[in-house]
Specification:
Chains C, D: Its cofactor is thiamine diphosphate. The complex is a heterotetramer, with 2 copies of chain A and 2 copies of chain C. Chain A is of the alpha/beta class. Chain A is built from 12 helices and 14 strands. Classes of the chains: A alpha/beta, C alpha/beta. The structure holds thiamine diphosphate (TPP) (2 copies) and magnesium ion (2 copies).
Amino acid sequence: MTKVTLAKALNMGLRKAMETDPKVLIMGEDVGKLGGVFRITDGLQKDFGEDRVIDSPLAESGILGTAVGLAMRGFRPVCEIQFDGFVYPAYDQIVSQVAKLHFRTQGAIKMPMVIRIPFGGGIGAVEHHSESPEAQFAHTPGLKVVSCSNPVDGYWMIQQAIAHDDPVVFLEPKRQYHADKADLDEEATPPPLFSSKVLRTGSDATLLGYGPMVKTLMKAAEAAAGEGRSLEVIDLRTLSPLDMGPVFESVRKTGRAVVAHEAHTNLGMGAEIAARITEQCFYSLQAPVLRVGGFDTPYPPARIEEEYLPDLDRVLDAVDRTMGF
Amino acid sequence: MTKVTLAKALNMGLRKAMETDPKVLIMGEDVGKLGGVFRITDGLQKDFGEDRVIDSPLAESGILGTAVGLAMRGFRPVCEIQFDGFVYPAYDQIVSQVAKLHFRTQGAIKMPMVIRIPFGGGIGAVEHHSESPEAQFAHTPGLKVVSCSNPVDGYWMIQQAIAHDDPVVFLEPKRQYHADKADLDEEATPPPLFSSKVLRTGSDATLLGYGPMVKTLMKAAEAAAGEGRSLEVIDLRTLSPLDMGPVFESVRKTGRAVVAHEAHTNLGMGAEIAARITEQCFYSLQAPVLRVGGFDTPYPPARIEEEYLPDLDRVLDAVDRTMGF
Amino acid sequence: MTEYLVPRAEGDVQYVQLLTPEGYRVEHPDYAFDGGEDEAGTIRGFYRDMVLTRRIDTESTALQRHGELGIWAQLLGQEAAQIGSGRALRPQDYVFPTYREHGVAYCRGLDPLRLLGLFRGVDQGAWDPHVNNFANYTIVIGAQTLHATGYAMGVQRDGAVGTGDADRDTAVVAYFGDGASSQGDVNESFIFAASYNAPVVFFCQNNQWAISEPIERQSRIPLYQRARGFGFPGVRVDGNDVLAVHAVTQAALQYAREGNGPTLVEAYTYRMGAHTTTDDPTRYRLTDEVEYWKLRDPIARVKVYLTRNGLADHDFFEDVEREAEELGARLRDGCRALPDPSPLSIFDQVYAEQTPELEAQRDEFAAYLDSFEGAH
Amino acid sequence: MTEYLVPRAEGDVQYVQLLTPEGYRVEHPDYAFDGGEDEAGTIRGFYRDMVLTRRIDTESTALQRHGELGIWAQLLGQEAAQIGSGRALRPQDYVFPTYREHGVAYCRGLDPLRLLGLFRGVDQGAWDPHVNNFANYTIVIGAQTLHATGYAMGVQRDGAVGTGDADRDTAVVAYFGDGASSQGDVNESFIFAASYNAPVVFFCQNNQWAISEPIERQSRIPLYQRARGFGFPGVRVDGNDVLAVHAVTQAALQYAREGNGPTLVEAYTYRMGAHTTTDDPTRYRLTDEVEYWKLRDPIARVKVYLTRNGLADHDFFEDVEREAEELGARLRDGCRALPDPSPLSIFDQVYAEQTPELEAQRDEFAAYLDSFEGAH
Ligand SMILES: Cc1ncc(C[n+]2csc(CCOP(=O)(O)OP(=O)(O)O)c2C)c(N)n1
Ligand SMILES: Cc1ncc(C[n+]2csc(CCOP(=O)(O)OP(=O)(O)O)c2C)c(N)n1
Ligand SMILES: [Mg+2]
Ligand SMILES: [Mg+2]
């Protein structure tokens, strides 16, 4: 057992994946000597060489487009997008090529590719460095989308994503990279990649989230417990496919749900989750599923980002409102 | 009064806008001599010259990126994307620049730009020619998104979008371009651009849609009426902002709603609309809002696209299901 | 726009040519045609390839007119560019085409019926690319040039370049059009290929038009010179001269296989037909231009050459004609017989590993379809 | 990667230079420095500009270290490239910067405090670009080169090019970095500019690094040669020589204003500091290289030149120093005094015409915030 941060866990997971399978490549801007601007690929080029840890020209479409060709040649590219806001130049390659090649070729071509994106806000950065683009990828058939919320998940999920034969958009909550340490047991058996997880059981309402929001939700549940309110918390972990089984079960029990994310509320994951819960648990619902999200504005300047981001208070406010129905 | 197709109405609307304001420009691939692959800009280059109707190099990011500069210089570019599936190379410019410049500059810069996209399926085309990308744009703050469903709306809405000071993604249901003719009264006063419209009143359930689906919904309501079922039909017209007032009013009356679109169901407009209706009309709802959408697969080969696209039967099936609650 | 009135390629076009439009062989200081031991046989083969390719094209155009195909992207006039380059490939080489490389597909041994499947709309061009080392058609302009470059980077990583082993050293070819040269992706592929010195040949068929836009809208200098800006060689070849295209492509491929990196080949040719069967070129170009290019037909000049030099007799030409007829008949019958996909199949091909939620959607739709079965 | 051990720019770099690192004026066949009537005064002005620009930079770096800025993009070493080009502009010209053109901003008359607002996170660089004809900083690499090209197309449509009226003819400058040259957008901007012959100068500050990636990753030939591939002129200038940068930029601007179209100027310079204050360049480059470039400092050579030739005295240098001190103090105080935005303001700036739904979201949030007020 070692105590590791999310950043370290991801680094260890990548290293493990590269050791396990010589076809695994890492590509991106500054992933080599620098080890990436967040140091997630630290030391990998030194140990695996420039052929496997590839500093790319500064062109995101180029990174993803060449990764497609490498995948066709039998490699398993892990592409790093430096910040969430810089994935859009590669958007066409991702949604029209990466996502569709398996379908287009009726399975003749697989796209075992991981697109790592440090995402979300709260780090005091300038524009384009705090985006939450998950809904756009989850809306795209052919892609799978996951997000880890803690070091242990980070370690396992990145390996599972790399080993998986479909393209996986892997969202890393950058605010959590160095936030906490957790005990990592490298001998453990991880849960399946595409599964959600009940982190805390409760009976009054269900809190749903992923990535950077999970910590906030746990704190909210903690705070609510102090006031005698029992909240269940689910870390969704996988955004496409969604693993709604545990969610439905929970909501059928609590009758109430609040879903939270940093992404804009309008057409964010919360909309889909609310719609599905309502479709499947209609008679169990005591209140509409409420959403706590980033506002429907561009991400604001850093000095007011904490106002923009859903926090413990806004989550509890939503819980209050749902209890009021 | 003249009888016009949607294609003709859009052409007339563009011409009117160019006559009204010399700052209006048209840009895109093949928009000049050819008049666009759908002939929507037919004859405009001949009459307004190559400086105002600009055939661009084959590069969508280039079209949108230069349009940003032209807008900064005081022009009002109307950019044509040849087919829905080819908007993605321009995605970065649209979501990170066009959508954000007003916000970034605290209003110092306006982006009076229209991005015309022929969208949707049903024309027997090959891959990438039948996409429905609306949710991705509606999820992006800073953009406005509308879709016309008929020639009269086409004529007015394109002019209103061009006159509007915010960037408007203008979705044209390509399947309807030549489908029907309607009486166009050029002297009429159109409803506001960002408003939804009740097309048919009913009491049992509310059908919601936009663009290419509206015709299907009207037919479904017609068919249902034959079986003694009274359906209200609303053409949403504006997707961002949504004009939910008439929708809430309707659902409070009918207690049931079905929302339909060609786009993938998962995280499509239907998810947001269902979530909002549930939030606002919780106690009026007799059934969950049901969604009828394209499946969560890539758009299929033409020979089975009619199976993929929501049709009258699938809409009525959903109505049956909602009545069964 | 009178500037396009004068047929392009008149006099001032500098390119590698080895067989004139009149069917005379000419010398070039840098390139010579290598037809192997039986040169005449090779050239007869090219002739046959081009005729059959043209037949695939005209037959498919006709099938579209008869409603059997939804659309067809014609290659008429580009046969030499495609056969000359396609026949320069070795088995281990790998091709990334656009949507118009029917002649290259044919060289790679892909059954033309597979192409028809795409244009008929029964599938999306779903052949297994690894069978013929011929990637799937790509419709989003330029995207495949990056795939080719990435594949070539993979070839490097597999040590399949510069070994001197003729059966191992591998080149990759990215086909694209003159219009495509404006896309960011194409230029980024030049950058990646140059940066990693990847074994890729960028083969641009400059057919003078991108739908209604003339090449002048995309570039104000000859396209092959684009390569100069990226630090690798570019060469323009008479794209209607199958011998020159073969020689130039072979050299570029060999250069790549030996580890010298990318080359841009611009095959200067002409799209004799419409952009696709839905296009109407009379709206934007003059018949004069088409007439001019008719005199430079890629097949006619080979026929003249073979005939004049007694390298092929009447029987040969008749045989080829008969073969073309047979091919045409096979395509007509085969096309009509292509089975429509099952609606449910679309759910099965989205992922390598199916998701439970999509499986559920499939089941729901299956039940829905069944409900109609019952109703009838 | 020992290939970068040898400091670049040693001997083999061919560029336009008019003032050597040792402070000697040299001739160039194509370019001469035009300092106007009072040449010495102009050069003293450049010196002052560079010193003040450097002060803006060092002061801002210090402010970041003290926690007053979230981040700062340093320009240390690039003063000549920015002042030389910035001072070549006419009022009607228009600039599209990256995030590092603090010196150009200064030349355009933008208050440096506006820059600090962005890096402090109180806004996103929200100056009105039309006040100083200086567009807003653009962080997405390369995007602004297309904006510049579009703006230049607008200039053409306004007939503000090639009229011969010095107050009317307008050029547009797109700044970008060596790394940016790999982006599709930058290459597409070359294509559009060439296709329409737009009056735009592409000004590339090749500071040798894109964060940790050396220029060799982006291009295997000198960057200015990229322009050859697109059919317009490219020129490399000693980016640490303010006189040469001024001369070359002035020529390129005039060429554009006269209606001759785009030029690519590569200012060969060096990023002496980190990429930004969060970067640690010791991880990827050697101090040898930095030491080498220290000897080519853009400010030192002007000082030597002015001193050696008696064109500036001690008082002048002291005055500039004092002015820099004052500027530094103003920045320190001004930065701390920059007001935080109101949380509710974000709802008001999304659209030119507010939407009812966003207004409702605003009201809801306002009520929510009020509920806390009450609670306290
Ligand atoms: C990204 C993208 N934009 C637009 C289109 C529509 N389109 C299809 S072919 C074509 C012209 C291509 O011209 P060129 O590259 O010269 O190839 P050609 O068709 O002449 O072989 C266009 C604009 C597309 N397929 N992809
Ligand atoms: C599209 C995009 N990708 C990645 C980044 C992250 N990033 C910021 S600056 C930079 C390097 C830019 O290098 P260069 O163009 O040489 O400019 P310099 O910073 O050296 O002035 C990178 C990769 C970005 N801002 N935008
Ligand atoms: Mg072409
Ligand atoms: Mg740089």
